[in-house]
Design a protein that fits this description.
Layout: E1 13-18, H1 22-32, E2 38-44, H2 47-54, E3 61-64, H3 73-83, E4 88-93, H4 98-107, E5 111-114, H5 119-130, E6 135-136, H6 138-157, H7 163-173, H8 178-185, H9 189-203, H10 208-217
Parallel strand pairs: 1-2, 1-3, 3-4, 4-5, 5-6
Helix pairs in contact: 7-9, 8-9, 9-10
Protein name: DNA-binding response regulator
Organism: Flavipsychrobacter stenotrophus
Pfam families: GerE, Response_reg
Length: about 220
């Protein structure tokens, strides 16, 4: 559990909820209403209602669903933080995909938890982000770590191409023949064919189409 600062002790945390499922909102009311030091200031069914409601009252912490009709959570977060930078945003969603986690955190969310989380984690997350810290559900934090390690492993496994191989790759991507590439580089066709073979071996492919596709995926060419 995150310790409260002396400044926050005794203060009531105002909560707003943005979710398009009435059952979710009802469930959150059931959990949060009796919780000590927490007050629900408003509930909204979509992004438009949320932005309108924030003009009247700004919560300390906003529980924000990502997938809502109209403007989604990852769309409205930009507007919210520009207009109300003091609001702490806690993404509360069914999306456990690393892409969504990274997107929301990059956009400025202070935390990310799942709707399937336990009551204790929800309350801890609210109090943590209110105190100015970040909170990611433990299960999702492990997932982020695994994804980061996998990305580093992929980077370390990426093939190293020589300057000449990169030039040949660019021309292959431009659909030039080996002879046309040879003429541009002032080398023999045999030399270009050797570079082409080396590229296919390094990238583990068997033809030019697959070679270009993999090269683009790895960021070796534009």
């Amino acid at each position: 559990m995150t310790e409260k600062t002396s400044e926050n002790i005794g203060r009531v945390i105002k909560i707003a909820i943005a979710d398009d499922h009435p059952l979710v909102i009802d469930g959150l009311h059931h959990i949060l209403t009796p919780a000590t030091g927490i007050e629900i200031a408003g509930s909204y069914a979509n992004g438009r209602e949320l932005l309108h409601g924030l003009t009247y009252i700004q919560p300390d912490v906003l529980l924000l669903d990502i997938q809502m009709p109209g403007q989604t959570g990852d769309e409205v977060i930009d507007q919210i933080l520009i207009q109300y930078p003091s609001i702490k945003i806690l993404a509360l969603t069914n999306q456990d995909n690393v892409y969504y986690i990274k997107t929301m955190l990059r956009k400025g969310a202070n935390g990310y938890i799942l709707k399937t989380t336990r009551k204790e984690i929800l309350l801890d997350a609210i109090r943590t982000v209110y105190a100015g810290e970040h909170y990611i559900e433990p299960l999702l934090k492990d997932k982020l770590i695994r994804d980061t390690l996998q990305a580093k492993k992929q980077i370390s496994a990426d093939p190293i191409l020589s300057r000449r191989e990169k030039e040949v790759m660019q021309y292959i991507a431009a659909d030039l023949t080996s002879q046309e590439i040879a003429d541009k580089l002032f080398v023999s066709k045999r030399t270009v064919d050797n570079h082409r073979l080396s590229l296919m071996m390094k990238l583990g492919v068997k033809n030019a189409a697959a070679l270009v596709k993999v090269a683009i995926q790895l960021g070796l060419i534009d």
